[in-house]
Amino acid sequence: MPLSSWFPSKKPQGAGEQKGAAKQVPDGIWSKCASCNKIIYQKELRADLMVCPQCGHHYQMTAAERIELVSDPGSFEEYGAGITSVDPLGFEGTKPYVNTLERAKGRTDLNEAVVYGTASIMDSPVVIGVMDFRFVGASMGSAVGEKITLAAEKAIERKCPLVLFCASGGARMQEGMLSLMQMAKTSAVMERLGRNGIPYISVLTDPTTGGVSASFATLADIVLAEPKALIGFAGPRVIEQTIGQKLPKGFQRSEFLLENGMLDQIVPRSEMRERLGTIIAHLAPPTPVEAPTSGEVS
Amino acid sequence: MGKYAFEFERSLVDLEERLEFLRNEAADGTDETASQVDQLEKQIEKLREITYSNLTPWQIVQLSRHPNRPTTQHYIESIIDDFVELHGDRVFGDDSAIIAGLGRMDGRSVAVIGQQKGRTARERVQRNFGQPHPEGYRKVLRVAKLAEKCNLPLITLVDTQGAFPGTASEERGISQAIAVNLAAFSSLRTPIVTVTIGEGGSGGALGIGVADRVLMLQNSYYSVITPEGCASILFGDSSRAEEAASLLKLTAEDLTGLGVVDGVVSEPLGGANRDPHWTAWELKKTLVAEIDALVVSDSEELVEKRYQKIRSIGVFMTEQGETIGSPLQMPDLVFP
Questions:
Q1: pTM for the whole structure
Q2: Domain that holds residue B45
């Protein structure tokens, strides 16, 4: 094996396509951390839950990795896996939206940018939804809006807490106003969730921006975040253009939001499962579990 | 002197100015100028029809931003009696990019909220060009809750390029402020009618725009992102906004087709700026009829119906491969 294969290629796959996206996981056996530039051993990075052992940078995780990280082994049952986007506007920019979708599906083995289902966390039943940034920047179009809504409705039906791991570049531009209206739709269902007395915890991960941050992500009873995640309404570049100056370091990062009163806690990945378990146990003390209604289709 | 005109209406506006000049001459009264005036009038009428009857999406975006386009303040002054403005969010400050208050329309008490861009250069700066900060959305929420408490129909007039993308907005939680309004409006127990009167810019517009009836003025636009922003992302070049405007399907006509918008309020040929009073009168007629139809519902029924309306927006494919919602029907292109 040539020595060069130990290090990542200069241009990570797909990097050109997701401009402004958070730092990608480096490939290769040894690699440079995208945050601290120190050499890290890939196996070690994976063992540390995709957190850089040198600087604590939290790399993005796939939906499947996250579900495995926080839910009790074997407890996750997925719903709505087949729900997928169509191209309602016939959107053809530099490339047709349908091609963008096909590529995302091929690269991720997902049909959409969010995965949801029932699970248990430290023995408490929950409905859990996880957004996957690899799928068109986890932007919210009609299908994502529908799945988030279905997840909330499932939590109401099962009378158990809703946990959503958020990550998103914002609304899915290729679906135009239909995507903007998903902000209204997902916010409306969270209002219903609240009226039904169902606790809702959201975890903001890197990055949670735009239409998702300005809708269901920030409507939770408890809002947690991973360390140093980029969280905001407008993107840093847009803000810099507007104010005509460079933003201070750490602006729109989790620590900044905590200081400004927008978060309950910042929770490192290694403590996430336990913290969620504790919070859920406080909010929804275990009650005899009701048998699921018959006739449900997964 | 030179009136404001976009490129596509330049030749028309030039002729109109010439007509004005000739009319002044004709006042002195030679038959020759009178017949010239006659001829020019006919020419202008024809050109006006040609210029404005088939506007492109980009031309509509331009008209929606016309510096003389009537603002929220104009409509409030024209159609609301005894308006009382309410200031402040009771937490941080008063955002002058949003006007909120109480008044009467056609004898009925209503609450009115709208983004205000400003009519003069000075007012535009003072109102931050109609781009609200979080305290603006929190003022909106306070007045909406008051409307609910006192059973007042709520009218919101949307006219913003978007919520202000600055550091102060982020520090004070612009995302959360908008999100809370979306949730609160979805369950507000009083009728809500929203009208996009100019620019409907993304989340900053929707933050006052969840309603039982969603209307647009004919030459307004409503979009998930500005055409410039979209062009910048797609082509790396914001000057290609004209192309982006076509892609985004942001006109009243397209959005009615997508089921996002319920109705369109007519404007005079050439845009609301050409006859603000006529436009205000059209808007009032529509608002009165819409509110009359909504107030008869019991509030629980109203909220349920609004929820179902919002719940059903979207076009996607189910697990069974069935397409839910209706994609935009493209008119068949006929080539000669």
A1: 0.92
A2: 7-54
B308 inside domain: no
Main-chain phi, psi angles of A59, to 5 degrees: -75, 160
| Contact at CB, A219 and B173, closer than 8 angstroms | no
Dihedral, CA of residue A24, residue A25, residue A27 and residue A32, to nearest 10? 90
Whether residue A177 and residue B249 make contact (CB cut-off 8 A), yes or no, is yes
Count of domains for chain A: 2
Among B261, B278, B296, identify where a domain stops: B296
Structure tokens at A40: 């890290």
How far CA B274 is from CA of A281, B271, B278, B280, in Å, comes to 63, 6, 9, 12
Q: Please identify which residue in the block is written with the tokens 């929420």.
A: B141
A101 with A119, same domain: the answer is yes
Select from A82, A173, A181 the Cβ nearest to the Cβ of B225.
A173
Distance in angstroms (rounded) separating the CA atoms of residues A12 and A15: 6
Chain B hits for A87, Cβ within 8 Å:
327
- Determine, yes or no, domain membership for A6: no
The predicted pLDDT at position A19 comes to 41
- Collect all residues of chain A within an 8 Å Cβ-Cβ radius of residue B203: 171, 180, 183, 210-211, 214, 233
Question: Residue B130 in contact with residue B175, Cβ under 8 Å?
Answer: no
A-chain residues near B131 (CB < 8 A): none
Q: What does each of the 336 residues of chain B score in pLDDT, given as a tens digit? A: 468 899 999 999 999 998 988 888 777 667 777 888 889 999 999 999 999 998 999 999 999 999 999 999 999 999 999 999 999 999 999 999 999 999 999 999 999 999 999 999 999 999 999 999 999 999 999 999 999 999 999 999 999 999 999 999 999 999 999 999 999 999 999 999 999 999 999 999 999 999 999 999 999 999 999 999 999 999 999 899 999 999 999 999 999 999 999 999 999 999 999 999 999 999 999 999 999 999 999 999 999 999 999 999 999 999 999 999 988 865 444 444
Q: Which residues of B71-85 are buried (b: 16+ CB within 10 A; e: fewer)?
A: bbbbbbeebbeebee
Nearest Cβ partner of B315 from A178, A188, A231?
A178
Residues 6+ apart with CB under 8 A from B294: B153, B191, B193, B212, B213, B302
Q: Give the residue numbers spanning the domain of A36.
A: 29-59
